[in-house]
Amino acid sequence: MDLSAGISFSFLIAIILCSYSQSSQLYLQPVKNDHAYFTGDNFFVTCFTTDDNIEKLTWTDFESNPISTDHGRIHAEHAEGDQVGLRLVFTNVEIEDAGTYTCSDDQDSVSFDLTVYRAVSFGDTPRVQHAPEGDTGVVLCNVKSDPKPVVNWYFEGTKISNDKKYQIHPDNHSLKIHDLTRDDAGEYKCKAFVFTHLSSQIKDFDIKLHVQYAPEIIGEQQVSMYTSVGSKKNLTCTITADPVPIFQWLYDEMIIHNNTKKSVIYDTNNSSVLQIDIDSKERLGEYICRASNPLGDKEVIIDLKEGNPPAAPTLEVASDKDTVKLDIKITEDMDIDEELKVDGFKVQYILTMSGSWNSPKTLEFKIGDVYEIRNMSYNTKYIFRAAAHNGAGYGNFSNEVMHETPALQTASVISSSSTKCALSSALFFFIIALL
Ligand SMILES: *[C@@H]1O[C@H](CO)[C@@H](O)[C@H](O)[C@H]1NC(C)=O
Ligand SMILES: *[C@@H]1O[C@H](CO)[C@@H](O)[C@H](O)[C@H]1NC(C)=O
Ligand SMILES: *[C@@H]1O[C@H](CO)[C@@H](O)[C@H](O)[C@H]1NC(C)=O
Ligand SMILES: *[C@@H]1O[C@H](CO)[C@@H](O)[C@H](O)[C@H]1NC(C)=O
Ligand SMILES: *[C@@H]1O[C@H](CO)[C@@H](O)[C@H](O)[C@H]1NC(C)=O
Ligand SMILES: *[C@@H]1O[C@H](CO)[C@@H](O)[C@H](O)[C@H]1NC(C)=O
Ligand SMILES: *[C@@H]1O[C@H](CO)[C@@H](O)[C@H](O)[C@H]1NC(C)=O
Fold first, then answer.
1. Do the Cβ atoms of 328 and 314 come closer than 8 Å?
2. What integer pLDDT is reported at residue 33 of this predicted model?
3. What topology does the record note for this protein and the membrane (predicted)?
4. How far apart are alpha carbons 84 and 54 in whole angstroms?
5. N or C: which end of the chain has fewer CB within 10 A?
6. What is the pLDDT of residue 332?
7. What is the rounded CA–CA span in Å between residue 44 and residue 86?
8. Are 59 and 47 in contact (CB under 8 A)?
9. What is the pLDDT of residues 202-233, one digit of tens each?
């Protein structure tokens, strides 16, 4: 370096230093010149000045329009804190907001470029989707973004890969499921990834898939039921379907209407109960329960026959501490129809003191249960009775049995008082020792 070059170099430094001391300098935070966001994002960029005079600072957009300091979607506002700065605030950023923004005062200016990508959106994708069993099912995910997203699918939390069963369409991102079964029903997640060299975004969307199927009978397709004249009988048919089926009852090829004198129909999503008043033998015969949905229909045939409820059982009662043991016996023909075999018992009891059967306690047992009632009061007089049940209903009650539960055993009381005794005698000896 020769002398003259050295001098002019120092002169340059002097000028720079000089201009530094005299004028402001501006800088941005975050410290970068390229900002990329997705539509809908909220963010701000702050322009700081080394000068104390904030009034000189202005932000201008890509068309050199100054940005006002009111509360517009894009506006400028004073930064909080020790440093003097002006924020440029973007709310709900839009594609049209992209461009160069400049912060300047009377001496300096700094700029940044804003890029805005179209955020991931799932548009009109239905939250609940339906597809019929057996066919190839399609789960839609109308996902959009710019740049285009990469889409992954999940079923009940597990990532789905393209294979024989599943295919993800490369353009519309819909998920194709081959040989759709009811096991394919459940929670699906459509997860979209967008990335550029400046930014990235991940968003997901949950979809519930219902697999629809034609009505399906739960139980027998043809059954016999029994009833006796003078009683009410419930005929029940259980048929599941998706969509929920429409039930219809038929007798003698005629539709049975609801809420007539003789019949009331109660439907749930998967069953229908026809309650019939059996006022004569004419109510007996073949009833048909038909369930249908757009995918098909099914019929259950119920042959309603006359049968008697069981004869009254015999009853004996014993006690073991607070448990009452019931000995219930029935006599039954060996060749009786399956539907008319006794399948359970109803046991009722009252306090002997009350003497009335108006509001008895009632317990139901199935054949094979242990016929016991636990936690009965000690030293109390009860009256018990039992009735047997078969397909035609409950029969007559047994003989009434009066029974007194035993008195409470005092063994535990004795043991606790003897402990107390031992304790007090120990105390007694201790006192003596002290004396
Ligand atoms: C997805 O696109 C393919 C081909 O473009 C088309 O066959 C299919 O029906 C589309 N699926 C949906 C759900 O739009
Ligand atoms: C018959 O069905 C109706 C409606 O479901 C129910 O309230 C009633 O308790 C049933 N009767 C018998 C004897 O099961
Ligand atoms: C039939 O009528 C009864 C009584 O009004 C009602 O509770 C029931 O829901 C009706 N059943 C159907 C299937 O409409
Ligand atoms: C009956 O089906 C409807 C429609 O599928 C559903 O919204 C409702 O929760 C179901 N009810 C019951 C008790 O399952
Ligand atoms: C019928 O639907 C009820 C709820 O509505 C459900 O608890 C029951 O498990 C269903 N039965 C069958 C056989 O699907
Ligand atoms: C039930 O008792 C009544 C009246 O005592 C009697 O007429 C009827 O035959 C009895 N029923 C049976 C099944 O024993
Ligand atoms: C009997 O009483 C005990 C204790 O109070 C209780 O844990 C138990 O469930 C009761 N058993 C019955 C059958 O009520």
1. yes
2. 92
3. Single-pass membrane protein
4. 6
5. C
6. 86
7. 10
8. yes
9. 999 999 999 999 999 999 999 999 998 888 89
Classify the phi-psi angles of 431: left when phi > 0, otherwise alpha if psi is within -120 to 50, otherwise beta: alpha
Q: How many CA atoms lie within 13 A of 271 on its CB side?
A: 10
Residue 412 has pLDDT above 80, yes or no: no
Query: How many whole angstroms separate alpha carbon 385 and alpha carbon 76?
Result: 88
CA 265 to ligand 6 centroid distance, Å: 30
Q: Which long-range contacts (CB under 8 A, 24 or more apart) does 326-333 make?
A: 326/371, 326/372, 326/373, 326/384, 326/386, 327/371, 328/365, 328/371, 328/386, 328/388, 328/398, 330/388
Res 21 pLDDT > 60: no
Pairwise CA distance, residues 330 & 307, whole Å: 17
Q: 18: Cβ–Cβ under 8 A, 6 or more apart, which residues?
A: none
DSSP per-residue string spanning 362-405: EEEEETTS--EE-SPPSS-EEEEEEEEEETTEEEEE---EEEEP
Check pLDDT > 70 for residue 152: yes
> Which residue's alpha carbon is nearest to atom 6 within ligand 7?
375
Distance CA 133, CA 147 (A): 36
CA 286 to each of CA 92, 101, 175, 256, 289: distance values in angstroms, whole numbers, following the listed order: 68, 84, 47, 12, 10
Ligand 6 centre distance from Cα of residue 286 (Å): 27
Q: How far apart are alpha carbons 315 and 313 in whole angstroms?
A: 6
Q: Which residues line ligand 4 (CB under 6 A)?
A: 244, 269
Q: What secondary structure letter does DSSP report for 160?
A: P
Q: Are strands 361-366 and 393-397 parallel, antiparallel or unpaired?
A: unpaired
How many whole angstroms separate alpha carbon 8 and alpha carbon 95?
50
Q: Mark 83-102 as b/e (b = at least 16 C-beta within 10 Å).
A: ebbbbbbbeebeeebbeebb
Q: Read off the DSSP letter of residue 66.
A: B
- CA–CA separation, 285 vs 164, rounded Å? 52
Phi-psi region of 252 (alpha: psi -120 to 50; beta: other; left: phi over 0): left
- pLDDT tens for 260-276 read 888 999 999 999 999 99
Atom number in ligand 7 closest to CA 375: 1
Mapping DSSP onto H, E and C, the string for 284-344 reads CEEEEEEEEECCEEEEEEEEEEECCCCCCCEEEEEEECCEEEEEEECCCCCCCCHHHCCCE
Which ligand has the minimum distance to the alpha carbon of residue 218?
A: 5
- Give the span between the Cα atoms of 374 and 364, in whole angstroms: 14
On whether the CB atoms of residues 198 and 34 are closer than 8 A, the answer is yes
Structure confidence at residue 293 (pLDDT): 95
The pLDDT tens digits for 37-96 are 999 999 999 999 988 888 889 999 999 999 988 788 999 999 988 888 999 999 999 999
